[in-house]
Structures are given as C-alpha cells and as structure tokens.
Amino acid sequence: MDFVTTSDELRTIYKTPRPTDGSIRKELKGLDGHCRSFIGKSPFVLIGSSDGAGNADVTPKGDRPGFTAVLDDRTIAIPDRPGNNRLDTLENIIRNPSVGLLFLIPGMNETLRVNGDARITVDAGLRERFAIDGKAPQSVVVVSVRAAYMHCAKAFMRSDLWKPETWYDRATLPTLGQIMRDQLALADTAGDIDRELDEDYRKTLW
Fold first, then answer.
1. Would you call the peptide bond into 164 cis, given omega within 30 degrees of 0 as the criterion?
2. 176-184 and 190-204 are packed helices; what angle lies between their axes, rounded to 10 degrees?
3. Among 103, 104, 105, 87, which residue's Cα sits nearest to residue 141?
4. What sections of the chain are H helices per DSSP?
5. pLDDT by residue (tens digit) across 48-69?
6. Rounded to an integer, what distance in angstroms lies between the CA atom of residue 36 and that of residue 57?
7. How far is CA 111 from CA 73, 103, 104, 148, in A?
C-alpha cells in the first residue's frame, strides 16, 4: 500500500476543483453573530486535542443548549462536568494548548468549527456561572479563538445522521455493560454493570 507523504503529492490528487474563494474567505478570526448564535443553541461539542507527541484524542461534551459560554468575540468557556477522571483532554491541554472544536445542533446538517488555544481555570466566579442545581464544574476550559467557520452539510447528508428511520434499533445493539464485561473480562453480569452505570448517571450527571 502506497501512502501520500508530501503536500505537493497531495495537491496533485486534489488538484480539481481548487478551493473556492468562499471556502477560503469563510474562515473568521473571531466569533461573529452567527457563530455566537450557533454556540448558544448547541448542546454538544467535540474537542480534539493532542499531547504534542503525536497522541491525539477527541472527547464529547454535552449539556443543555448554550452550555458553552461566549465570553467575548475571541473567547469561549466550556465547563468540565463529572466524568471518569481520566482527564485525557485536560492533560493534553497542559502539554499542548491547541484544540479543535466541532459544535453540533441536532437536526442541522451544518456544523461550526472553531480552532484555538485552550487553558484550564478553576476561577470561582466562572465556575459558579456554570453551576447547575448548585453543582459547579470542577474546572472550566477557556479557548482563545484563532479561527471559526461553518462546515458544509455533506457529511451529515451522506450519513443521514438525523433521520430516525436510518437508526439501528437500540435493542439490537449491546449495552455498555455487555461491552465492558467482555472487554474487561469482568465477573459481574452485564445487567449488574448496567444498573451500576445507570445509578452513576443518575447521581453524577452534574
């Protein structure tokens, strides 16, 4: 199997059509009104990060619509809700602040891409701003925006992602308890693991 290893070789493969003027100029250096509105309606964002040594990671963050705050035209704040404490993204940010964000709105095929530099803060006032039911996040990821632009709908159109009639029947798929039992060779039953997961979700969602 041959691999493409240079930019020149890559461009000979993707030589037509060339990027349009609009696809180049759509990249903004900050957040305009449309970006701010999109983020304000989004309940879900994917964060891509890397430790700088070639180890990359993408993590999902989801909450009530608008959970990500636009502090100003060049700054976004994302609360870190309770998780498994692997801290993959946060550890990466410590080592390499560059991140890529992909914001989604359910039912909308277009997405918002934001690239920037992230830092972690435990500022009490900012954490309190994100409190839900009296529970503040343990930390907040603050992203300084370097680029923001809308991404076209083709990937979502090809995948029919938002069309329920294309979805698998959830009952035909293994539960997380079943997957964990098999992958970790656990003695517990899948049902017991699923019940523990449900209890954890109920108690520690925020």
1. no
2. 120
3. 87
4. 7-13, 21-25, 33-41, 88-95, 124-129, 154-159, 176-184, 190-204
5. 999 989 899 999 999 999 999 9
6. 25
7. 18, 6, 5, 11
Reduce the DSSP state of residue 192 to 3 states and report it.
Answer: helix
The pLDDT value given to residue 19:
74
Mean of per-residue pLDDT scores for the chain: 95
Whether pTM exceeds 0.85: yes
What 3-state class would DSSP assign to 190?
helix
- Confidence at residue 114, expressed as pLDDT on a 0 to 100 scale: 98
Coil vs helix vs strand at 165 = helix
User: Side by side, which strands form the sheet with 69-72?
Assistant: 56-62, 44-50, 98-104, 111-121, 139-151, 75-80, 69-72
The ranges of the chain with pLDDT < 70 are: none
pLDDT of residue 18: 72
